[in-house]
Amino acid sequence: MTPWLIITLVVLGIVVLLGIAVYNGLVGKKVETQNAWSQIDVQLKRRHDLIPNLVETVKGYAGHEKETLEKVVQARNVAVNAKGVAAQAEAENALSGTLKTLFSVTEAYPDLKANQSFLGLQEELTATENRIGFARQHYNDVVSIYNTSLLRFPANLLGNLFGFQTAEFFQLDGAEAAAVRQAPQVKF
């Protein structure tokens, strides 16, 4: 064997091993992204399961708030049937808005605010909202790492070759994002 043939085979072997390492890294990051999305999905399912119980409890005390209750149920149904990250984020943001409306309506009913079932459901929903927030943050962190890896050289070449695509971030919609970014007002 000639030295050039040996050098060529060694270089080719290194390139193949590098390609395998990059490909496996992209696969690992893609799976981690899918897992992070599954964690959000689990928390959203928990949230969706709590809402009918909450609506029924409120209905017993505030039956004439039918329009608000219907909006919550409708927003929940849209959220349950949403497909894809962007559609899911939009539906969940709408559901959050209707839940805020529901909780503001319940302020007018002292008996409801003192009801143990309602308080328990409200506490569970608050805890679930916190879990959703943490899951969203983790998902977006993982998506950021995956997308960055996919855009770097030489992973971008292999990613395009094997059909890897960037993942979508789970983002707040315009109105909710503006409300979150706005400084709270303190009045005495």
CATH architecture annotation name of one domain: Up-down Bundle
Major β-sheet annotation = none
What is the string of helix and strand elements? HHHHHHH
Radius of gyration: 24 Å
What does this structure look like?
The protein has helices at residues 3-61, 66-81, 85-106, 110-114, 116-151, 155-162, 174-181. The chain contains 7 helices and no strands. With 188 residues, it is mainly alpha-helical. The protein has a domain at 35-134: de novo design (two linked rop proteins), CATH 1.20.1440.20. 82% of the residues lie in helices and 0% in strands. The model is unreliable at 179-188 (pLDDT under 50).
Question: How are the elements arranged and paired?
Answer:
Elements: H1 3-61, H2 66-81, H3 85-106, H4 110-114, H5 116-151, H6 155-162, H7 174-181
Helix pairs in contact: 1-2, 1-5, 2-3
